[in-house]
Structure formats: C-alpha cells, structure tokens
Design a protein that fits this description.
about 170 residues, alpha+beta, 3-stranded antiparallel sheet
Length: about 170
Amino acid sequence: MAENKTTGIIAMFILALLGLVFISAMTGILNPQTDLSTATSEEINISSAIIDDNNINTSVSFDLDYGYSTTGNTPISSLVITNGTTTATLTTDYLVDTDLGNFSLKNSTYMLGAGDTLYATYNYKASGYLDNSFARLVTSLIIGFTALVIVVYLVGKAMGIFTAEA
C-alpha cells in the first residue's frame, strides 16, 4: 500500500510539472494576443535633426522600430523619451504621431542638451493582437480554466491516494 501511495505521489508530481510547462507555453503563445507588447529603451540617433548647438530641425521625424512587417504598423501608446538620465516632456520637447509610430523633436533646451542619442519606451500591439476585447477575455480565460482543471484533477488524485483503504 505504501508503495502504491509513493507511485501515486510521484505520478502527481510529474503531472503537476507537465501542467506547469503546458500552462507556461500557453501563456507565452497567448500573451502577445491579449497584452500590449513593450519596447524598452530603444536607442534612437537624433544627429540628423541637430542643426547646430542652438537649433533643432523640427521637420525631421523618427520612426520607432517595432516593425511594419511584424506588427502591421499598429498604433503605439505611452511613448516616453529619455536621454538616459532625464525624461523629455511631451508637447514641450517632442511631438508624437501614435498612429504612424513616429515622433519629431521640438526646439527645446532639453533637446539641445540631449546629445545625439535618445531612448524611447512605448507599448504596441504585436502581430496577432486581438483588437476585440471579448476575444481577449475568452483567450485569457483559457489559461485560467486549464489551470483549474489541472488543480482539480491533482486534488482528486491526492484525495484518492490518501483516503484509499488497504
């Protein structure tokens, strides 16, 4: 009887590990469809917009590198520009076109002192992102229900192992 319990416990442990691997894989596949992706500290060379120490060419726009071929050039959101230490101010230091995924600089003291490199952090919709909120909800629920089924199965097996009479 003790050997049967040990075998059952080992089998449950293996099933729990397989369940975790399965859920982890599902999460990796489904997250780009249900959550916005983030680009962090994308390096942007702005030297083409610097005219001299006192002027910025405000007509130069910089495209963010989240990739038309990968994402279909979806809108971006939450764009934050820094020079590595301090954060630029939207409308004072730069303007952003969220639909096209680009930005332009303003002739501000921040930009004149920023140097040749800026860093952009923003959110975007990865390829396959579900625009419909109901579809995102249902897709997210798949992971939760799968985890629930695995837990119920393991608890049922554990109760069967430990309540079995000899």
